[in-house]
Amino acid sequence: MKKIISEDYKQHRLTARPRLTRQSRWTVAVEIISLPDLKSPQVFYAEDGISYILEEEAAKECLNLGRNLVDKKMV
Hints:
Largest sheet: 5 strands, antiparallel
Shape: elongated
């Protein structure tokens, strides 16, 4: 990835972590860090099994996955 895409969302930092597969597709994966407790932040990592041809498209979906997980209080 040329640059790391991340955003702060509802007291969490979401970082897109798309991975290139052997089939030259990009998977959707996100790293979620809980911001309220910076002394011992909790780090979560999630993947959804979906892949895309374009890295930029996968990165956007990574952040969407993170937002959905935060909204549903799954992290």
